[in-house]
Design a protein that fits this description.
Structural class of chain B: mainly beta
Distance between the termini of chain A: 37 Å
Order of helices and strands of chain B: EEEEEEEEEEE
Order of helices and strands of chain A: EEEEEEEEEEE
Strand content of chain B: over 45%
Number of strands of chain A: 11
Number of helices of chain B: 0
Largest interface: A-B, 27 and 26 residues
Shape of chain A: globular
Number of strands of chain B: 11
Oligomer: heterodimer
Distance between the termini of chain B: 39 Å
Chain lengths: ~110, ~110
């Protein structure tokens, strides 16, 4: 069964460093998303991406964040200058269509900022 | 703001028993989806119920949706130890595009 994959599974970085989290969505899906979950808290929406552009972003997704689909398969989340409070589990998700479509999540990347 | 909230926060049952958890939300929705998360792991999609549906089944799972009460329930029948996990509801709404808004989850412990 097709699934969303994410790499790395765990990333440790120092405050102020740039990180790139990678995702390979399900191949025939058109909508891509990033969410994050700070330890012990709810899963929060960051950004959605469709047709090579951001369709929606949350207040969390400030200028330090960017997303890219560099080729036909990868979808990346870049954090330019990490802060301690960026430590969280980051989930990529994809869906086949827009409204009324299931979103399938990857296993997540645990980001630890020290 | 639209928000899913699960009830109870935690549930402990014996293997073979049924587990029921509820989700409430505040604004009109397109769909409501239920996910499972094992400790520290990814979110596994369980079931999607649309706003015009009242009940859906998938294996041992039964989901109901009452849009008049803005609530949903997830029933796991004949629970197994492997069902031990956190369960989350997530909603999306016309006004919010496709983004999902998650509740805080119900932690379910199934004792063998």
């Amino acid at each position: 069964e097709p699934e969303v994959t994410q790499t790395p599974s765990h990333q440790v970085t120092q405050m102020g460093q740039e990180v790139i989290l990678r995702c390979v969505p399900i191949s025939n899906h058109l909508y891509f998303y990033w969410y994050r979950q700070i330890l012990g808290q709810k899963v929060e929406f960051l950004v959605s991406f469709y047709n090579n552009e951001i369709s929606e972003k949350s207040e969390i997704f400030d200028d330090q964040f960017s997303v890219e689909r560099p080729d036909g398969s990868n979808f990346t989340l870049k954090i330019r200058s990490t802060k301690l409070e960026d430590s969280a589990m980051y989930f990529c998700a994809s869906s086949e269509g827009g409204p009324r479509s299931e979103q399938y999540f990857g296993p997540g990347t645990r980001l630890t900022v020290t | 703001s639209q928000q899913g909230e699960e009830d109870p926060q935690a549930l402990s049952i014996q293997e073979g028993e049924n587990a029921t958890m509820n989700c409430s939300y505040k604004t009109s929705i397109n769909n409501l989806q239920w996910y499972r998360q094992n400790s520290g792991r990814g979110l596994v999609h369980l079931i999607l119920i649309r706003s015009n549906e009242r009940e859906k089944h998938s294996g041992r799972l039964r989901v109901t949706l009452d849009t008049s009460k803005k609530s949903s329930s997830l029933l796991i029948t004949a629970s197994r130890a492997a069902d031990t996990a956190s369960y989350f509801c997530a909603t999306d709404a016309w006004a919010a595009g496709n983004k999902l808004t998650f509740g805080g989850g119900t932690r379910v412990l199934v004792k063998p």
